[in-house]
């Protein structure tokens, strides 16, 4: 069993990246956010994921984030880093930088912008694997990269020990279940759901854990959900999830004026600001920022969810 | 009228980027390729576009390409540079580097990986415009970025003089025609088609020119097509286009074994290698490389098109 | 509470439609299939759904199916009928015919072929509702009709008592959960999943029941799954579901030679033929028919699932 | 050469279907509309196409339309009939009815609602061809049926003389050109564009003619466009097309309040009503009807286009 497989499970929030008014990394806020997560009992930290607005950060800013995260987490839980970029050579640069920074594993998407098939996706993961020592998780997120890592592709990569697991943000729970069943053959295979809304169901069918963006806002809620599920108390898990489902509606507050990306990133950051964890609700450009009226709606939702 | 608008028209091939066996820029081949294009009479050069495999190049490699292109073109025709990346801050870095390198204009896509709407797309172009002095062309390529720059968005940006024109790789010729009609209000607006296959039709309905990937392989053919169209000889333009249409079938040679990205990039490079312009048919990773049997098919197609 | 809401729950298989070699309804096989389902303890029958190949049947054949189903079920369980067609007027004709035939409820999709929005979808359901006495279930199946009945649309129709429930074949379990949560306001609202593969999870989060195409082949398995879930034995439910998940792989046997429609319909019918329930594995034209080698693979899968 | 191939060319409007306030066929209006088209010099009539709202008509209404059309056209130009339905058996019923009604050719889409591949599409056309004597045109309209008749599939069916031609409403002009080039091998192959907006370009690259929905409103304009193109006067053709392009904006008048289907059908019918050809702007249900303010916008557009 790999070191990662033996340690990684449970709630692994895809850490938001607090920004200053000048669109730089707000390291003080980031430190508070990490502390907030660890105190809530999260089981790992995933830095530089989609929720971490990795797509909006310069290489230098990415490095800053990883430095702060590795320093603050200080080995208490595993740290994963997203190495999001269009193709292999660029990703390998990010992967090496993350390895240098001291993270414990990498989360790698299929290529994007270019049009690839399953053969190119396999080649991609093999090349990244060959370039670094760190264990890899495949990040299946068709809504962002517009191709699917097919289960046959993924399981072949697992068989070759190129990847140790998957973060499934496909929204295709039926397909995800097929991966879970494949653990009959590959018992160490890590399978995390990227869903915020079906974590109880995912755990019931065997998921290793969850990587919920909303976990930034309410890590304690997701940790309770996970512990209830682990104890087989599905009723408690479901109730917790239903509360979080309703809280997740905050991602729609900005819709109409802006697209779902701005609206969701803005909602998480506004909620964290309202909870006193981070200093601003600034989002990466060209995303739009939630305004005062929208902020007020977020405040109401936090009250309803008993988070304020 | 902007300097760009007064000079830019006609055939502007999206320059392939020759690579060595070690996946580095093959500068000697690149120099030969540029000379080959200029000798054929192309009216501009578009470096670091999708066909230039910009998505596969490191920032350092992008800089090398621009240095070679600016030096070799030496002002004979305008040089455009693609600044392809996920979001605004990263693109502004590329834009400044390209400005430093001495190009004459930038070609900028909508954001990708993240999900944006038209408001975010507008904000994006305004921010890039504010960050550099160079004129911008909007690069509408939904197949790569998975959002459309809607005509209302684009024409508003034209009105604000944020963008000077468009490279339309949408495949939506009816929409493209709507942009052409808008030149009643914005006569300097540059509108280039990214199609390889409908250049005669695009010119007939008023396009400023074309940015055909296949132009790498047969720039003289596209220049003849353009000159025939400019002379109103639509029969000659059509015949040239039909020959090039048939030649374009080479992009399918690798299909099945690989996806369309690998297959198309590989076809152009293999054809250029067979024509003696570049040294290898190496493509950026994780794309797959055309093999000997596939190369033989390309050779046959070049014979049929009277290019060998 | 409507009569339907008080009676409808549990496993409601979307009945396959056995055909003769001449592509006519095989009424003897259909009678055996209905008896097979009832003996297994299914809680309802859904005739003329997508799995019932309603799209392939003439109006006369649809009438024959409903006559046989109503006669054979004879009130033992509720009978639902699909009224699948492109737009309102045509659907109202099917709805009236089904009402005449004596079914207990209708399952109605959004319009298709034409491009509609949510306003037209709402109008559509209101018009069908006004034309018949029977309760309606909305059939949300974007893969077939290529539009989504948005939750806001659906819940407004529930509020107006235009529809009594939903059959959710969207594959979007997170959205489905939102509908389930809305039952706080609409406790009689029926919400069935169309999934074959996540029935345990759907029941755990509160679904009224399931409409699994694979239920044709193994109704007893799905009934066991449902009873285990109702008893709160999630471990047993999960095991049953995992066996059925593996069995469901039969729908891929024909893939490659044919598309998923032919392959899935053919797999269900071939399995029913092998189990001795129906006489042929003929599928509606232009679907392709599974051949001897493919039939042998189905046989193996039935053995593995302990159904032969 | 088939009889159809020798006669069919030019402008073949997809005839709108006038409705009464009670949603029945308004035969008087239909007669006037046909006379209006013939007087304008159209070269054929396509009844029961998408613009004819075939998806909204009962079988009886379809029969009424064909009876009126065949009687009024009276052999002056060829009459084509759309036989739109989900799958083969249902389409064969429509095809036989149309044959009985006396039309000259049938326009047949790929199956829809169900998921088919190219093998099933081929089988479908072969079965329809075997069932009737009339020549078939393949109707490639992915926006409605959500699958593409691939060029390889289509040309094989042409080779087998299963289909005589294509009505291309795919919006993929580059692919359409490939079909036109295939006429080197199949000179009788009829290839019509379904575009309203690129008819000059389509004719320039070799199309047999056009089937423009907007032709209902301004058949004389499209006939002039066609005659100019046939005379090689591309400048005149382009000017006519540009005027019609601007007129086509009327299809957007209802957008927002309704979807594009309602908006486009309503625009054509409202324009025909304003021009005094048909009695109402009623559209098939559940489409929404243009209101007085929207009608006023259509009136303005007709003035601008010099049609009022």
TrEMBL record, chains A, B, C, D:
Keyword Lyase: yes
InterPro entries: Aldolase_TIM, DapA-like, Schiff_base-form_aldolases_AS
Keywords recorded for this protein, A-Z: Lyase, Schiff base
BP GO annotations: N-acetylneuraminate catabolic process
Residue positions of the active site: 139, 167
GO MF annotation terms: N-acetylneuraminate lyase activity
Binding site for pyruvate: 51, 211
Assigned protein family: Belongs to the DapA family.
Protein name: Dihydrodipicolinate synthase family protein
Originating species: Ktedonosporobacter rubrisoli
